[in-house]
What we know:
alpha+beta
Amino acid sequence: STSVLVSVLTLSAIAVERWWAICYPLRFKSTLPRARKIILLIWIVAFLTALPEAIVAKTEEYIFPGNYTSPFLTRCA
């Protein structure tokens, strides 16, 4: 979930930045510190948004007929 959110938020940030640069070319200044802050903000928002799912989700081992279990075959519950 976090990686999907990071991808979506990154594309959204790029779109907003391009829109701002096109609509306000004289006021727009793209700087490295601003980019770093936006990247950090994107990761924090994505992590916090995906956190409830990580807390609630649990995994179960898949039980085959004959009581055979394998730790390699798990499912989310």
